[in-house]
């Protein structure tokens, strides 16, 4: 009897925080002191979808029961990483950086590129975090999202909102100070469009996929504006590619995860398409829209002619997978189209960077016979000396392009038609 009492007293002295840990109910796991070793799922409330997932990977406790500093840093770093959807945000940064290089001309300001990428990363992290805040109950009902920080209770909603707000403000301020106001406005607008329009629209109407495509098309335009200070026709090429590419990419994902989206209460286009025919047709149509982009890049003087062939081959490749999905509407063909979309984007952006032409390359070339005097006299076969006006070279103009580009643009009236100068 005495020994048991002494052990109880000594345990309270050694671990004074033990009653605090025991007072936490098993069905709730929010907060810093939530249990990290909870394994029983029978005590989880079935009526509250947020608390249906066991708590996984909390901060490690020290010898005296309080979380250690290293455990806290590791815990919240992982939570912030998952809240920000870091891999998706890095893809957004890659498109923004590519747009910055395309808008830089012959010389790239690498410090400005780093600031633009950092600001884009912060804004994207904020948008993705707010997306998870608004969809916490939906994520708890889906297999692939129920272990995220908010549904699993590894972090509180106010904490996530504070993280998202600080990242959004810091990223917008960084773009405004180190890039320009146009880039900052585009970043803030994209944040609002994604978090406050696209996110709630996912539970209302299938048009959310097309709104999400607009969200994905803005970051390369942001990068181009950060480098050039304007939005021009050349800067619209990569955003157009991102917009058209996202439709088959999302359609394939939505088809593969139809049951998950149905459980989460999302109104996806594939859920209203029982046999998948309309989903496949939409995917194929947008893949075909990618075909003229290589010709437009060549016609606008953005890239060399090699990019035309590479872009066409890429568009035909992803179109073939969409055609296969249309003919055989099953998970295997949908997964093949999804993998093709993952391959298309980095190869397309890499081709743009490898084959790009600087905007002032032609201006840097020396002009021949630029002296108005008769330094060089040219004669025709009949021996007649050319006049002074003929000896002076004409203004350096763009060379005409092959008329084949007209055929590629004709089915796409919403794309800008190429302009040709007759020789």
From TrEMBL:
GO terms for biological process, alphabetical: heme biosynthetic process
Q: Which InterPro entries match?
A: Protohaem_IX_farnesylTrfase, UbiA_prenyltransferase, UbiA_sf
Q: Which Gene3D superfamilies match?
A: UbiA prenyltransferase
Main localisation: membrane
Kindly give the membrane topology term recorded for this protein: Multi-pass membrane protein
Q: Which residues cross the membrane?
A: 86-104, 110-134, 155-175, 181-198, 210-231, 237-257, 278-298, 304-327
Instruction: Name any GO cellular component annotation.
Output: membrane
Listed A to Z, the keywords are: Heme biosynthesis, Membrane, Transferase, Transmembrane, Transmembrane helix
Q: Report the locations given in the UniProt record.
A: Membrane
Question: Recorded GO terms, molecular function?
Answer: transferase activity
The reply on keyword Transport is: no
- Cite the HAMAP family for this sequence: CyoE_CtaB
Q: Tell me the NCBIfam families matching this sequence.
A: cyoE_ctaB
Protein's recorded name: Heme O synthase
Species of the source: Castilleja foliolosa
Taxonomy, top ranks, is:
Eukaryota, Viridiplantae, Streptophyta, Embryophyta, Tracheophyta
- Name the gene for this chain: COX10_1
């Amino acid at each position: 009897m005495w020994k048991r009492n002494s052990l109880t007293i000594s345990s309270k002295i050694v671990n004074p925080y033990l009653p605090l840990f025991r007072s936490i109910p098993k069905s709730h796991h929010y907060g810093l002191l939530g249990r990290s070793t909870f394994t029983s799922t029978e005590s989880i409330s079935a009526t509250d979808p947020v608390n249906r997932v066991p708590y996984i990977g909390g901060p490690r406790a020290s010898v005296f029961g309080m979380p250690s500093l290293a455990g806290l840093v590791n815990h919240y770093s992982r939570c912030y990483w998952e809240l920000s959807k870091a891999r998706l945000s890095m893809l957004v940064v890659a498109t923004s950086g590519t747009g910055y290089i395309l808008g830089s001309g012959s010389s790239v300001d690498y410090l400005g590129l780093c600031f633009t990428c950092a600001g884009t990363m912060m804004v994207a992290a904020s948008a993705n975090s707010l997306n998870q805040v608004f969809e916490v109950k939906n994520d708890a009902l889906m297999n692939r999202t129920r272990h995220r920080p908010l549904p699993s209770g590894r972090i509180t909603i106010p904490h996530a909102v504070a993280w998202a707000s600080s990242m959004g403000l810091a990223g917008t301020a960084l773009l405004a100070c180190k890039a320009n106001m146009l880039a900052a406005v585009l970043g803030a607008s994209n944040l609002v469009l994604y978090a406050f329009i696209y996110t709630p629209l996912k539970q209302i109407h299938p048009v959310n996929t097309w709104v999400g495509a607009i969200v994905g098309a803005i970051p390369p335009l942001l990068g181009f504006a950060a480098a050039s200070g304007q939005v021009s026709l050349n800067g619209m090429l990569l955003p157009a590619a991102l917009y058209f590419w996202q439709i088959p990419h999302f359609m394939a994902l939505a088809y593969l995860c139809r049951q998950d989206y149905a459980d989460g209460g999302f109104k996806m286009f594939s859920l209203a398409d029982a046999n998948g025919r309309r989903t496949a047709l939409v995917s194929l149509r947008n893949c075909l829209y990618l075909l003229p982009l290589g010709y437009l890049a060549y016609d606008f003087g953005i890239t060399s002619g090699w990019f035309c062939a590479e872009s066409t081959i890429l568009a035909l490749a992803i179109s073939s997978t969409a055609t296969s999905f249309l003919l055989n509407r099953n998970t295997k063909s949908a997964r093949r189209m999804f993998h093709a979309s993952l391959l298309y984007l980095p190869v397309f952006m890499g081709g743009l960077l490898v084959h790009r032409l600087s905007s002032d390359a032609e201006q840097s070339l020396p002009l021949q016979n630029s002296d108005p005097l008769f330094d060089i006299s040219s004669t025709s076969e009949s021996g007649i000396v050319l006049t002074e006006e003929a000896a002076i070279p004409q203004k350096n103009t763009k060379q005409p392009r092959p008329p084949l580009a007209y055929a590629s643009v004709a089915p796409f009236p919403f794309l800008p038609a190429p302009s040709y100068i007759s020789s």
